[in-house]
Amino acid sequence: MFLLMINCIQNYNEIPNNNPDYNDDYYNQFMIVVSLFLIIPSLYFLYRNSPRLLNVTPKANVIIVDKKISPDENEKNEIFSEMSSCGGFIPYLRKLHKNQGNNVTSGLPYPNTISVVDPMIVKATLQVGDRPIELFKFLEPFLGNDNLQIHDSKRAVEFRKVVGSCLGHDVIVAKYPTLRNLALEFIERWEKVVMNDKNSIIKMQEECLEFSLRATLNVIVSSNEENLDVKTYKKSYDAVLSGLFDKQFGKLDTLHEERFQESINYMKSVTCKLIDQRRNELKTNNEGENKMKDLFDILVSENDPHTGKPFTDAAITHYMCGYTMAGYHTTGTAIPYTIFAITQNHDVQVKLREEIDKTLGGRLPTFDDLSSMEYLTQVVKESLRVYAPASFVARLLKSETILPAMDESKDLRLKANTTILYPIPLYHEDPKFFTQPEKFDPTRFSPDKIKNIEPNTYCPFGFGSRICPAERYALMDIKMVICLILQKFNVKLAMKLEDFVIEERFVNMAKNDVLIKLELRSN
Q1: Of the candidates 11, 36, 46, the residue with the CA atom closest to the CA atom of residue 26
Q2: Where exactly are the transmembrane stretches of this chain (predicted)?
Q3: Is residue 53, in this structure, part of any structural domain at all?
Q4: Which of 175, 299, 308, 497 is the most buried (most CB within 10 A)?
């Protein structure tokens, strides 16, 4: 185009001055070329920046969030210090959102990151499956530098296709009797404690964490506890998780660093022994092909869809640790939180016990019983709203994107490689989404009211393409234990209400545990 314009200028200068026809013709050609030279590039730049490329209809105003927020070390230290004074990351985000509104674009310790409390943005990003690698880099010592948390969306989908059946309905139903027997072991333990001393206090969080770890291992590894020292395994696991949390904030001293590494080595050695044992079992089991496979079976016997080759021992170890970590603390804290909520709402405890007694008539609950008890489901869902174990969900936008916001007069334009944080508790406690959010009200999830909950505002298990694959298993687990406890006991809080303090670790945990007094029911 530029050469054509130069050529026209040269031709125009060579036209005889005494020939007006030639002057007009060349003048017209010259102006057409000049116009094209100016208009076509303009159209290109306009179109390139048009929201049409992003399949979003532009609104009256677009907020451009394209500033690279890269706090230096001093700024990060100041932010982490303020986070500590606020009581953690979620309380800090709560403060930022109060000052900045639904979309927080400054004051975050991570570069190119925003935090949103906006169901429209959740809806627009439901199918985004990429996660920010840097945010999960601190997990590398335990889960490796190629762990499940940072798989891109395509690889995550491929992996889920291979292992998806291990947490499916049929597997959960098949595992249910074993899991119920495990829960009954704890119920019988507590019954003996109470019969020996009626004033005994149960550390419900500590107990439920042990149950959750054992149950999770049973589901994904089919662990034979004769071959696995669960108490030592749990002690090591807790040391690893505590070390990882402290390590990311530079709080891991030399002594705890040594214990941290020892615990990681122990857990990896245990997993390697289990891998060898499982491979031998599959070789000698003639019915191996027809067996309902758990996660461990799949990893040991199938190919990695990413490489097309068998999963390496290192990959199996990292996947097993990742799945165990995801299921361990979440369910282990959700159960005691639900018990705590029941102690604070006598009418809920009475109504829930009536449903349990009417449904079961004194017998043990079946898998189908748990599904049929509507009020039990409502209580558990409301507990997960008020006391969500998970803190936030994160997604990475790899390309420039325009997102619609709650304020219909504004859109958000985000540059490529922007991380979005979705702080789960802030959705659950927003009065725009839940009336009187501080009130524990299970009827929010009743059949006639659940339709009033705005979509994409309730997300205890995350959302979209990376939602927790064990959601059904977790709900079953929580409902089963709550049901068994209330069949046998009345529950009362055995600590001052002000001592019930939630702190952030890998999940939102009760700092002082959840101390419960159990009273044997007279019937």
Answers
A1: 11
A2: 26-47
A3: no
A4: 299
